[in-house]
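F.,

This is the one I mentioned.
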C-alpha cells in the first residue's frame, strides 16, 4: 500500500508528478479502507487524516512519496493503516457474526377471532391481517383506509384457541349463540356500544362477579 511523507527521493522529475502520485496513492488507500471492516472510531480517525492529506495535495503543498505523513491527529504510516485495513481473505464473509439483513414483522397478532381483540373493537379477521401485512390497503375497524409504508417480512396470526370466533358470532347475533342468555346479553351491550366493542360488557361482567363474591361473603 502506498503511504506518504514530506521527505522524498531526489530523482522524481517534477513537483507536478509528485502531487499526481500523492493523489493517486490517497485514492488507492481510500478504496482499500472502503472495502474493509473496522470500528467506527478507527475508520473516522483514518478518514480525517486522509482528508487532511487530500487538502494538502489540493493546495500544492510540498509532498513526496515515502513512508509516513503527519497530520493534526497524528502520524499516518504503514502500521496505523494496517491496524484498520485488514488483508482480504479467501471468503470476505468468513468470521462475520452480525446480521446483515434485518427483517421486520409481527410474531404475535390477534384478530377478531380472539375474544380479547374483538372485545376492544377489532372487527378484522386473519384474511385482512395477512393482506395488510403484504402491503395491501384494507379498511380498518373504524372505517378508515389504512396501508403500511412497506410490507412486513413476516406475520404470525396467534389467535386464542379457546372461544375461537365466539365473539364474532355474538356480535353478529347468531341465533344458535343467542340461545345462551349471557351471549344474548353481551350481544345487546355490544350493539348499544358506540364502537361495537365488548369493553363495556367486560366491565359490567367484572362488576357483577365482584358483587356476587360480596353477596356470598355477606
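My design for it:
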Amino acid at each position: 500500500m502506498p503511504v506518504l511523507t514530506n521527505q522524498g527521493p531526489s530523482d522524481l522529475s517534477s513537483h507536478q508528478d509528485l502531487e499526481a502520485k500523492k493523489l493517486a496513492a490517497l485514492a488507492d488507500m481510500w478504496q482499500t479502507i472502503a472495502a474493509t471492516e473496522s470500528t467506527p472510531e478507527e475508520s473516522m480517525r483514518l478518514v480525517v487524516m486522509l482528508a487532511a492529506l487530500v487538502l494538502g495535495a489540493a493546495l500544492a503543498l510540498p509532498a513526496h512519496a515515502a513512508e509516513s505523513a503527519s497530520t493534526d491527529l497524528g502520524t499516518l504510516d504503514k502500521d496505523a493503516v494496517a491496524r484498520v485495513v485488514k488483508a482480504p481473505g479467501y471468503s470476505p464473509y468468513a468470521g462475520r457474526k452480525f446480521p446483515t439483513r434485518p427483517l421486520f414483522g409481527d410474531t404475535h397478532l390477534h384478530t377478531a377471532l380472539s375474544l380479547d381483540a374483538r372485545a376492544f373493537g377489532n372487527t378484522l379477521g386473519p384474511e385482512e391481517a395477512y393482506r395488510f401485512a403484504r402491503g395491501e390497503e384494507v379498511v380498518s375497524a373504524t372505517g378508515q383506509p389504512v396501508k403500511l409504508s412497506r410490507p412486513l417480512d413476516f406475520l404470525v396470526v396467534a389467535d386464542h384457541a379457546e372461544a375461537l370466533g365466539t365473539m364474532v358470532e355474538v356480535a353478529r347475533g347468531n341465533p344458535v349463540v343467542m340461545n345462551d342468555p349471557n351471549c344474548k346479553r353481551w350481544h345487546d351491550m355490544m350493539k348499544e356500544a358506540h364502537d361495537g366493542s365488548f369493553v363495556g360488557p367486560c366491565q359490567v361482567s367484572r362488576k357483577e362477579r365482584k358483587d356476587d363474591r360480596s353477596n356470598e361473603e355477606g
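Residues 113 and 166 are 7 Å apart (CA to CA).

Talk soon.
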